[in-house]
Amino acid sequence: MSRQCPLCRHSAAQPYHRDNFRTYYQCSNCALVFVPPEYHLPLEEERAYYDLHENSLQDEGYQRFLSRCATPLLNELRPHSEGLDFGCGPAPLLARMLAEAGHRVELYDSYYVPNTGAMKRDYDFIVATEVVEHLSAPGEELQRLWQRLRPGGVLALMTKLVISPERFANWHYIRDPTHISFFSVPTFRWLAETLQAELEFADSDVIFLHRSGVHPE
């Protein structure tokens, strides 16, 4: 049985893996591995699962984790850039780290900071750390974020990458029931080509998509 890909909308995704809880499909066009909708948690159960997370603004380990995105991003930003932390969660530590470096950062999270006004502005950078794997419609969401980037801007994503079917079968990442979209290097290459973006892997799970054009003064 084939499925429609939630990233590129190709209609011939095929079974990739099955465990005791879910079936996973892979798109033959963009290589996204995804969980079909019948396995998605209801919204109230998804929110309850997120509420179990114990990240905090004072967590040094969490700060070290986020620094793998923050450090290379800060090296590329112009002074006093304006950005968006998309899917910031209840403890927007990355936004604080970037703000302490002199940048202005708006927050948006559909559960914790439903600031719809933030999604109507344009930005020099957008960060989404440990977010895309939760998206049921990643194609729509990433296009929406891309449209909010100014020329010369950067979309900074952080997510673990699919390596192989063998690694996937024993991967801790798929044990999280809220993880439903799994990206890989080929998927990001497809996405960069589709968005006409310059692709940069800043770390093993940190991906920058640079928008072409001259940064406005």
Automatic annotation (TrEMBL):
A Pfam family reported for this protein in Swiss-Prot or TrEMBL: Methyltransf_23
Keywords assigned: Methyltransferase, Transferase
An MF annotation (GO) of this entry: methyltransferase activity
Gene3D superfamilies for the chain: Vaccinia Virus protein VP39
GO biological process: methylation
Keyword DNA repair appears in the UniProt entry: no
Name of protein: Methyltransferase domain-containing protein
Organism of derivation: Microbulbifer donghaiensis
